[in-house]
Specification:
Length: 388
């Protein structure tokens, strides 16, 4: 896009005219129908995330797009990364600059995205790798219609969950679900569960930096213009067994941070909670329940819809790109052709570390841990089967 100009401003510099234009852009493009693109999410996240700003793109004197982002040294990322499950330029259909154009116009040393919505290459080619997110789309018969169809097509799975529900109730007491919860103490309980999970699995603790937990707490206080965040909880008797933190806007309900008591995994309390949350939220008019990236086994039984987003790292031309390709070659030699897959794993780890940690020392420590994990993975024998 020739003649593209950009102004980088603080969120507080945007006036009601800009926010009205932002909302009009969202209304014009169904691809942006997610709580993460709403002005309210940007307004809250920009107060919490260090070095936050909005790039305002214009062409021919007319505003054509907004890109909320954060800086970490010379790198740029979508605002609230690594917790932002969808990101891109807020614009009308066909008017958004591509990811490559955004990186060039902003002058970023690198721009790392994990779930980009919209064009990536400036000339129409795709950058990075496609990733799928999965959803439950309710039809005219609502939750009951969805459950009836799923139980028919995925009978073994859902009958098993019905048995798990009866078993947990028999063992621990009557089950009850509450949604719309905004108690900070409950959120702290959930964050504690997630931090224990990250420690067990060797993943970077995204809550250790502090500002990410502050963001979840701040979003809990928002409830305006149809946008908000809340939790749902599942109790068995007097025992809290699972919590799930979600964002919601319009008819979209985005499951964000689930957690459950590990000792009760056999009863699938997290899955039972998601089902009951959908049932209760559907009564309030929610119709799309977004489960984020595919991967966890239960999602294939739940979800009847999907979206494709792009994961990509755009580097300023020069040494960085050359080093990246050389690293892939070395990993391929060491890892039996697994360089590209290992690079994707390392890139995701590094994206989370760089986004969370705001000091060079903390980023260095996180990078060392990620490198160790990648090296261990590279040394493992491949278990991939070779087609006959």
């Amino acid at each position: 896009m020739t003649g593209l100009k950009v102004d980088i401003v603080g969120v507080d510099a945007l006036g009601e005219a800009e926010w009205a234009e932002w909302r009009a852009m969202l209304a014009a493009d169904p691809a942006l129908d997610s709580p993460y693109f709403r002005p309210e999410f940007t307004q809250v996240a920009a107060r919490i995330s260090p070095d936050a700003a909005v790039a305002v793109f214009s062409h021919g004197g007319r505003t054509v797009g907004f890109f909320p982002h954060q800086k970490r040294g010379g790198a740029m990322q979508p605002l609230a990364a690594p917790m932002n499950d969808y990101h891109g330029v807020i614009a009308r259909p066909g008017e958004a600059p591509s990811l490559e154009e955004v990186a060039r116009t902003l002058g970023a040393t690198r721009l790392n995205v994990t779930a980009w919505v919209g064009a990536t290459g400036a000339d129409g080619r795709d950058l990075g790798e496609p990733r799928r997110t999965v959803q439950v789309q309710l039809g005219p018969d609502g939750y009951d219609g969805w459950y009836s169809e799923r139980r028919s097509s995925q009978g073994k799975f859902f009958k098993d969950k019905e048995r798990a529900r009866r078993s947990m109730e028999s063992e621990l007491g009557t089950l009850r679900v509450e949604r719309g919860l905004r108690d900070p103490a409950l959120l702290d309980w959930l964050i504690g569960l997630k931090r224990d999970q990250y420690k067990r699995t060797g993943r970077h603790d995204i809550f250790a930096c502090g500002w990410t937990a502050d963001l979840l707490h701040a979003l809990l206080k928002e409830d305006r213009d149809g946008f908000g965040a809340s939790m749902a909880g599942l109790w068995a008797g007097d025992r809290l067994t699972a919590l799930e933190y979600s964002l919601h806007a319009g008819d979209q309900y985005h499951f964000w941070f689930p957690g459950y008591e590990p000792s009760l995994a056999r009863c699938s309390p997290g899955i039972l909670l998601s089902m009951d949350t959908m049932r209760l939220a559907a009564e309030l008019g929610y119709r799309t329940f977004d489960f984020g990236f595919e991967g966890e086994h239960y999602k294939k039984y739940f979800c009847n819809g999907s979206r494709t987003v792009r994961e990509a790292l755009v580097l300023r031309p020069g040494l960085g790109a050359a080093v990246s390709q050389a690293a892939v070659g070395a990993l391929n030699l060491a890892g039996g052709g697994r360089g590209e897959r290992l690079r994707a794993s390392v890139r995701r780890r590094w994206a989370a570390i760089e986004a969370c940690e705001t000091t060079p020392g903390n980023r260095l420590r996180g990078a060392a841990q990620a490198a160790g994990a990648a090296l261990a993975k590279a040394r493992r024998p491949s278990t991939r089967t070779v087609p006959a």
